């Protein structure tokens, strides 16, 4: 009976060591995963501004990674201007490589823009540029949440 207890304790210790090693590798991976988000004005129509969002996921580590399709939210301050659709798809990123997703076109209507972010319009009239935040949210290996905020300037810099 005593030998069985020692075997169980040994197996538990080995599982703890390997589990801790796995979690440490995933945490390191989440700090190394690079997300490059590019936002540009695609077109301006009567209904609003269409933003083209391109997301590139880069894996600089020695192991392959499974990443959920990222959710992208365009914000000004705490106001959400537009957000992408949710997709429950996994993407494999091989070691030392990158994956560029298909561009996403988001429409930001003038009426919601004027009511939710009047400061954004004032900023554009004053500087000729819009400063927005692109928040990218995904999950690495179905267990580690990953969020990155990118501050992006849109426009020519010529006051309106």
UniProtKB/TrEMBL annotation:
Keywords: Membrane, Transmembrane, Transmembrane helix. The chain crosses the membrane at residues 6-24. This is Uncharacterized protein.
């Amino acid at each position: 009976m005593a030998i069985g207890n020692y075997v169980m304790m040994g197996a538990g210790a080995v599982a703890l060591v390997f589990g801790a090693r796995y979690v440490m590798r995933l945490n390191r991976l989440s700090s190394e995963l690079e997300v490059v988000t590019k936002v540009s004005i695609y077109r301006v129509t009567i209904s609003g501004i269409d933003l083209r969002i391109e997301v590139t996921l880069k894996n600089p580590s020695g192991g392959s990674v499974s990443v959920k399709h990222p959710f992208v939210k365009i914000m000004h301050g705490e106001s959400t201007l537009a957000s992408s659709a949710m997709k429950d798809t996994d993407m494999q990123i091989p070691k030392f490589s990158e994956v560029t997703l298909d561009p996403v076109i988001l429409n930001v209507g003038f009426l919601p823009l004027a009511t939710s972010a009047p400061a954004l319009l004032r900023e554009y009239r004053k500087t000729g540029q819009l400063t927005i935040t692109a928040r990218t949210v995904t999950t690495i290996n179905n267990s580690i949440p990953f969020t990155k905020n990118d501050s992006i300037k849109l426009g020519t810099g010529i006051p309106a």
